[in-house]
Design brief:
The protein has helices spanning 8-41, 44-62, and strands at residues 67-70, 75-79, 83-88, 94-101, 105-114, 119-127, 132-140. It is an alpha+beta fold.
Length: 142
């Protein structure tokens, strides 16, 4: 019985197929690590901050009236048409959604949410003569 070895072409073909298979496995592993890092970064705190920001931003966009007050002690109040958001920057951090009637008499508190200490916010505005453009930024430090 004679044992025949691989020819050079067959050997090269086996090496190419094997290296392509290893390359595919490495690529899948790298993609898995990338996505697991991104998905792991969105903690519950980050999701809470996004939920709050989207709620406030939606009401700011659809509102006819928009005023922002700052009392100097870390409490911002965003006055919209009939909803106000009171954002307390001090510990324990709170965000209150308030229904009010003019001139700013509280009718009822719709929601009161304690916010984790890793979330903080910053207000900014631009003055264009007759109009103000308000900007609110939420940040999360883990």
């Amino acid at each position: 019985m004679k044992i025949k070895g691989f020819s050079l072409v067959e050997l090269m073909l086996v090496i190419v197929i094997f290296s392509a298979f290893i390359g595919i496995i490495v690529e899948i592993t790298l993609l898995y690590n990338k996505f697991s890092r991104e998905w792991g970064f969105l903690s519950s705190t980050a999701l809470d901050a996004k939920e709050i920001a989207i709620s406030i931003e939606t009401n700011m966009i659809t509102s006819q009236e928009l005023k922002v007050r700052y009392n100097g002690a870390g409490v911002y109040t965003i006055l919209l048409d009939n909803i106000a958001y009171r954002l307390n920057q001090n510990v324990p951090k709170k965000i209150e959604e308030i229904t009010y009637s003019h001139p700013y008499t509280i009718v009822s508190k719709q929601k009161e949410k304690n916010v984790k200490n890793e979330i903080y916010w910053k207000f900014g505005y631009r003055d264009f003569g007759f109009t103000y453009i308000y900007e609110i930024s939420f940040y999360v430090y883990n």
